[in-house]
Amino acid sequence: MPGQNPDDIAIIGWSISPMERHTGKTEAQLLLEVVTGAVEDAGITRREVDFTCAGSCDYVAGQAFSFVQNIDAVGAWPPKRDSHVEMDGAWALYEAWIRLQLGDIDVACAMGSGRSSTADPALIYPMEMDPFYLAPLGADAMSFAALQARALLDSGKVTERQMAEIAARTRRDAKESPYAQVKGDFDADALLREDYVRSPLRKHDLPPITDGACAMVIARADKAKELCPNPVWITGFDHYAELHYPGMRDLRESRSTTLAAKAAGIGEGAVEVAEIQAAFTHEEPLLVEALGLGADTVVNPSGGPLAANPIMATGLIRIAEAARQIRDNGKHRTLGHSTSGPCLQQNLVCILEGN
Amino acid sequence: MAHQPCAVVGVGQTHHKTRRWDVSLGGLVREAAGRALEDAQMDWKDIDAVVIGKAPDLFEGVMKPELYLTDALGAAGKPMFRVHTAGSVGGTTGIVAAHHVETGRHKRVLAVAYQKQSEGNAQFALGSGRGASLGAGGAFAPYMRAYIARSGAPMDVGPMVAVKDRQNAMKNPYAHLKLADISIDTVKASPMLWDPIHYLESCPSSDGACAVVFTDEEGGKAAEKAGRQPAWILASAVRSEPSQFPGRDPVRPQGAVDCATDVYKQAGITNPREQIDCAEIYVPFSWLEPMWLEAHLIAEEGTGWKMTESGDTALGGSFPVNMSGGVLSSNPIGASGLLRFSEAALQVRGMAGEHQVDGAKVALGQAYGAANQYFSMWVVSNSLDPFGK
User: Fold this and answer.
1) What ipTM score was computed for the predicted complex, to two decimals?
2) Ranges of CATH 3.40.47.10 domains, chain A
3) Is the entire prediction scored with pTM above 0.80?
4) Which of A19, B114, B216, B279 is the 20 to 30 Å CA partner of A164?
5) A222 Cα to chain B: minimum distance (Å)
6) Which residues on chain B are in Cβ contact (under 8 Å) with A82?
């Protein structure tokens, strides 16, 4: 049973900002609100947070050292043990989780934030590719996603109708979520009559451009039990990378997802809900297969990234939504997933369990 | 299982230069990582996880380069983690990598930090392309003037640091600047960039990388048994503070004091000046040497400059500082912190070559970033129990 070992770590609070196409707030303002929300949710103050770790990206912010201003949101006074990853907030949570295992401190806060409205994604995403052979092609995230969607369609692993149905389902589910930007009732037949944006992807296959942030408080076992009647235990947490060049990989599978899921101990019990960072419709069946999930696992009941995609926070929000299913919706075992890079190059799996 | 011992068993770095046009970004990091693996007598396949650190991606124009560098660093099929904490990032990269071993998460971890500043324009990137960027020296000069005013240090102290570090660099085959003829007079005769910083009191802009192999107690002891001295990490600490608010002291930042207090306490150090044999600290502009000696509690407040002036911080002095030549001699920004930490490790391993401090058993590595806001420090030793606790 989780929580018995003093090194067990639990989620004890979180906060998610409104999800907007364009926010009038700075990234530090977004973080100020979610850090306040997360520590209040955990029943503590900033002063009781021993370690903070933020995830954000200078290119998304359009500024070098963009995270330096965000430290104002942390309230690092007196000075704090603090770190920053140029990765999704899910990896910031991973660093915080590692840090707490050293045993000398009890409480950490992880954050993820991004204002994608600041930059033109088509301009910046080619810059995360190999600068010699891939970046000069000018292919953005949408183009690489289309390449992977085509590989899946050609192999018969997915159909365009299935993709449209995923779009309709997630946006319908998102109607219940206060953190969704795109939601409503859509008819798959009508969606399939639309033109391609980038073949074989139509508009409904793509995530929205979203500004947003998330913060999450975690604590070591004794502190978590002291502060929280229903801590959500992190019972498995792993991430793996694979080769960068999409041409060197079999795009019909996601090996790093499978590696991360197995290492995190996914097979040790049923997964009732999976919140996965499938920002493009075709990625959902691919990731579900790579995670080894069955038909009885509910996928992205929050609407997932197809409903709101604040890059650099999207993954951490998946973990928050997976935690919500345990704390607020009575589930026992769920998972959060995050990804980075072209065609799902890098994947992270976080397994959560209730008391 | 909390906090198990961790050892540095491999260190590698590139030759640092203004432009390493002979290598790509991948080639640059492989050059350092290959040397670290060779030093550790390991192969790529022996590494369980990779932690990569660098300062802003705008410097090279490659966003989240850990994605592209996964292939060059043999990280496919492994965890690949990316840290960015401004100028302190190299130090923090080493600390995060060590945490992966100290928690028992992984057995062997490779940390790599780099910057290839010739790929872009660092001054442009520091200001995010906006006009009227002060540059780092312009931002820090007021802190140094305030230090001089407060401490009453003679104006020759800055030039003395500049000369001392460049003389040390003459003994380091990897150092970027080789200024054999530098003297107090030539430093003072060089152009004034940002009062009180002359051109020769400023760091260069370098291409370079550094890599470190970390292993657990078993691995460290096996290396020791095989005659390869490990550097044991006695303690590490980080602190951050906001950039501006009334009452903040950027000359003696509370974060610098707290970070030092924390790392000494963990290491069992009560008198850093006596118990630490040498220190490699982040001094991109000359006056930061006495400032950090004070803020890190090695010298009494207002007296750090006396350690420089008396020659205590010289290679043959009683408390050598920046034996490698320091940031004043090589500054691939993202790598600079890990280079400091690595030099501390090389010293206690007795592997620092011509810039070795005789009998160094306990060494301090330090890095800082942003507006004197981010601090990372570690204390390493040739023994897990150097003070006979």
Assistant:
1) 0.97
2) 9-120+209-232, 121-207+234-353
3) yes
4) A19
5) 15
6) 85, 238-240, 374
